[in-house]
Design a protein that fits this description.
This protein has helices spanning 12-27, 43-59, 61-74, 82-86, 91-100, 111-121, 159-164, 189-196, 217-229, 244-253, 269-275, 285-293, 307-317, 327-338, 341-354, 359-383; strands at residues 2-6, 31-35, 105-108, 130-133, 150-152, 172-173, 203-208, 234-239, 260-263, 278-281, 298-300, 322-323. The chain is an alpha/beta fold and 390 residues long.
Length: 390
């Protein structure tokens, strides 16, 4: 089978989820093409979309949050959203691409490509079966406009929310958010700690601002450095993601601190997460899921306003994380709770209960079943005698 996965770089989680699906599909013998659809209109278009998002959430998160608030209000109006209408401009590029390339199905861990295809379908163009994979613990604004054959939710508890926004229940699958195999490969905590050279008697904290180094990372870091400096049994690793400016600034500021390691983005995030005693980060849908499937105690920092606020509330409400809104006041007490073995065990049990570690495999099962049903319907239609309606 020929699979097309479409995503774009407004945060790293969407692409990571797409790569997890690509890995699973390839393992099953499918051919996979990974595409940022906006590159069809030129690399500059893709960069503008990506850079605009990154700069907004890094420098003006409150404006992003206000835009999300307006989107929530707008979705109740009986007209198509501005996002839907803007993506109409991509229709000629997408029509040409799909006319020149054959695909049996299309998977999208990002909303925007689904809106391109929804516009394209409205022109009468025949689009292969489509699947939208949510990478947040919410039905974000305008998902109801995607008109996909299947929509994958992050948890079955969210299905009523999607139905409430008009997505038919029969088109929903609660498979979860897909993560790459490195997070579910069976490597134990002890093996991960040995790989990183961690000392057995030391507690290790992992702090991250996601792929773009956003959130209240620097505020939390100042508090954590003060805390760690007074403890001989704790070390701290900070991952800055693709935020080069943040990496350089922190590297200079904390040079010589032997209790602190500053990293850029790393391809060993799964190992660091499994090895640490607590992961501290903003509540991105993918990073939160990665922590949960590795059974890592989790502290959520103040989010990028919008869907991350909902992610944090969802995790904390089910006992899967601690939500720290004011790091300077609350992070030390949160760590005291995390270091309590019984409390940490309860959190891990909650993560195992609500988060599906086999999401990538289950999504691919659903896709293959969708294709079987689609082909069965096509075969039955072809078998109908002339003049008889299917």
């Amino acid at each position: 089978m020929e699979a097309l996965i479409m995503s774009c770089s407004t945060g790293g989680g969407h692409n990571s989820a797409g790569m997890a699906l690509a890995d699973e599909l390839k393992k099953r013998g499918h051919n996979v093409t990974f595409l940022d659809p906006y590159t069809l209109a030129g690399e500059k278009v893709s960069l503008v979309i990506s850079n605009s998002y990154v700069k907004l959430v890094q420098k003006s998160p409150r404006i992003f949050g206000f835009a999300y608030f307006l989107a929530e209000k707008y979705r109740h109006l009986p007209i198509k959203s501005p996002v839907y209408r803007l993506n109409r401009r991509m229709v000629p590029h997408m029509r040409r691409y799909l006319s020149e390339n054959h695909f049996d199905f299309i998977l999208m861990p990002h909303l925007y490509p689904t809106l391109i295809l929804a516009n394209l379908r409205n022109t009468g163009f025949e689009v292969p079966p489509t699947v939208l994979i949510s990478t947040d613990y919410a039905c974000i604004p305008f998902m109801e406009e995607s008109n996909c054959d299947l929509t994958v939710t992050a948890c079955d508890l969210l299905e009523p929310q999607y139905v409430g926004y008009g997505i038919p229940r029969e088109k929903l699958r609660s498979c979860g958010i897909p993560v790459r195999a490195a997070f579910t490969d069976g490597m134990t905590r002890e093996e991960a700690r040995k790989t990183l050279g961690y000392e057995p008697e030391i507690k290790y904290l992992l702090l991250s601002g996601g792929s773009i180094g956003a959130g209240k990372l620097t505020t939390a870091l100042r508090t954590l450095v003060s805390y760690v400096s007074k403890r001989e049994d704790i070390r701290l690793t900070v991952v800055c993601g693709n935020n080069e400016k943040l990496f350089r600034r922190l590297s200079v500021k904390y040079s010589g601190n032997n209790k602190l390691v500053i990293l850029k983005s790393t391809d060993k995030m799964a190992v660091y997460m499994k090895a640490c005693d607590c992961f501290i980060g903003k509540p991105g849908g993918l990073s939160s899921t990665e922590a949960a499937v590795t059974g890592t105690p989790l502290i959520h920092l103040a989010p990028i306003p919008g869907c991350e606020t909902i992610n944090a509330a969802f995790f904390a409400g089910l006992g899967m994380s601690l939500y720290v809104r004011k790091p300077r006041r609350e992070i030390k007490s949160a760590l005291i709770r995390i270091f309590d073995e019984n409390y940490a065990k309860e959190m891990k049990n909650a993560q195992a209960k609500y988060i599906n570690r086999h999401a990538a495999s289950d999504i691919c099962d659903c896709v293959e079943e969708l294709l079987r049903q689609s082909r069965k319907t096509d075969d039955n239609t072809e078998e109908q005698p002339s003049g008889v309606q299917a």
